[in-house]
Amino acid sequence: MLVSRFDYHLPEDLIAQFPATDRIGSRMMVLDRQTGRCEIRTFANFTSFLEPGDCLVLNDTKVIPARLHGRKASTGGRVEMMLIDELAAGRWNALLRPAKRVKIGTRIDIAGTPGASVEVIRKLDDGICELIFSNDDVYDLLDRHGSMPLPPYIKRDPETLDRNRYQTIYARAPGAVAAPTAGLHIDEAVLRSIRDMQVRIAPVTLHVGLGTFKPVSALRIEDHRMHGERYHLPESSAELINRTKSEGGAVIAVGTTSVRVLETCSDGTGMVRAGLGTTDIFLHPPHTAGIADGLLTNFHLPKSTLLMLVCTFARCDDVLAAYELAVSEKFRFYSYGDCMLLK
Q: E strands of the chain, at which residues?
């Protein structure tokens, strides 16, 4: 199958640069998976599509303020660092800019933190370097001096509001460098209503990596290789999901990242097993979703692996028609944009 099958035209002015005033203030495109029919609602109506006994699967990863600035100790040259993967205490892989001008052994002093520095100990591909910090407490350093790693299509510097709004309200496990954006629409009141409805909530963890923004360069889907991301499906969540399936309730995945965990942990019979590890699963047609009965997701980039995953929940033509409708209705796209419910 050709990657071009998943292309569509998006005017640049529809790419949301800021979040809606309120988390629940976004519009929601509702696509019926069976008929392909669409209706336009607001996210405030989301709970009306849930029933007691259903199960909502939430990705509880927490975005770290992974962007740091510094200067080379030898020359004073500016360096920007985007931490992307913790290897051990005080050791990280990071995307450096400009990477070509940074040599192995270079020490970079971190801006605003006297005495704090990193040393480049290895250079990998695509501008990624392995760093060792002078202090093992990197998370504290990031909390004090890091900034949120906004996606490349948000054409502005991170602001104070992003610390809160580029994070789900149920984020718990630090490790992501991009938000599981479908969950950004959920506020405390919605979460409370869901619990009051006797809808089960099953947390999973998938630490979203920088590869989520990597464009698909292959012509054929089958030739693309996914990046690995760390995941965890706890025993308690697996039990809730399996009980829901056994009792005839619906499992609703909030975000493509939750779907990736569920499909990674599928036992092949429509149930899941608890698991912990790294997944590079690539979900695309003709595969169909095996665990989740519905999906809440944002609108994704043309020809992206995320859009391909959405097309495992409904016919590709129906999904792309919904996207065309969203463009004509001037929906807001991508991370801070509106959402879509495939029911």
A: 27-31, 38-42, 55-59, 61-63, 67-72, 78-88, 91-97, 107-110, 117-123, 128-133, 173-176, 200-206, 229-233, 251-254, 275-279, 294-298, 339-342
pTM for this structure? 0.94
User: What percentage of the chain has pLDDT greater than the value 70?
Assistant: 100
Task: Please tell me the CATH code under which domain 3-63+163-342 is placed.
Answer: 3.40.1780.10
Summarised one tens digit per residue, pLDDT across range 172-188 is: 999 999 999 999 999 99
Would you give the end-to-end CA distance of the chain in angstroms? 25
Classify domain 67-145 by CATH number. 2.40.10.240
313 and 260 Cβ atoms separated by less than 8 Å = no
Tokens of 27: 């519009």
Contacts of 36-42 with CB under 8 Å at 24 or more apart are: 36/314, 36/315, 36/317, 36/318, 36/321, 38/321, 38/322, 38/325, 40/325, 40/329
Domain boundary assignment for the chain:
3-63+163-342, 67-145
Q: Which of 132, 1, 143 is nearest to 65 (CA)?
A: 143
